[in-house]
Amino acid sequence: MYVPAVTSPFQTPLTALTGGPLDTAALTGRAVLVVNVASRCGFTPQYEGLEALQQEYGERGFTVLGVPCNQFKEQEPASNEEIAEYCSATWGTTFPMTEKLEVNGAGRDPLYATLTQVPDADGRAGDVAWNFEKFLVAPDGTVAGRWRSRTTPEDPALRAALEAVLPG
Fold first, then answer.
1. Would you please indicate which residues are annotated as catalytic (active-site) residues?
2. pTM to 2 decimal places
3. What are 119-147's pLDDT values in tens digits?
4. Dist. CA 125–CA 119, nearest whole Å
5. In this structure, which topology does domain 24-165 adopt according to CATH?
6. Are 71 and 100 in contact (CB under 8 A)?
């Protein structure tokens, strides 16, 4: 199910986890799974599945975009540099990540202002409920799906939605 975005989620500048601007132009025309991540969460092992998706579908026009967030019980207190080292050394992540962002509240990043307008499978839009919530952005910039934290990267419905929006 495609839900038109008000604007493409990637039209506003983002800063990469490693500093400097994130190349959002490189996301244009790709299917992107945007995930707010945290290193001290019970869902942190999902990094492994996210990296597996990146490896499996990356050459077909897909990218995971990790978005560290410390808004949920302060489960991402590390610096950007520490997060980058942890994700690389512990989970072998190769997908791009932004600097730490707020996904809810008055400081909500514009990326999430667009994403949170989209309802999940139960029809609930609005605030991100917890770490590792997932939003699938189709190559045309529409938000094609939203899954809450308990949905793993291996979930058949998530994978089917991803397959449906892959370019080509």
1. 41
2. 0.95
3. 999 999 999 999 999 999 999 999 999 99
4. 4
5. Glutaredoxin (3.40.30)
6. no
CA distances from 13 to 21, 53, 98, 153 (A): 7, 25, 10, 26
Residues 69 and 62 sit within 8 Å (Cβ to Cβ): no
Indicate the residue type of 19.
G
41: nearest Cα among 122, 129, 105: 129
Which residues are CB-neighbours of 83 under 8 A, at least 6 positions away? 17, 39, 68, 76, 97, 100
DSSP annotation string for 64-100: EEEEE--TTTT---S-HHHHHHHIIIII---S-BBSP
* Cα–Cα distance measured from residue 33 to residue 64, given in angstroms and rounded to the nearest whole number: 5
> Which helix (H) or strand (E) is 162 found in, with range?
helix 156-165
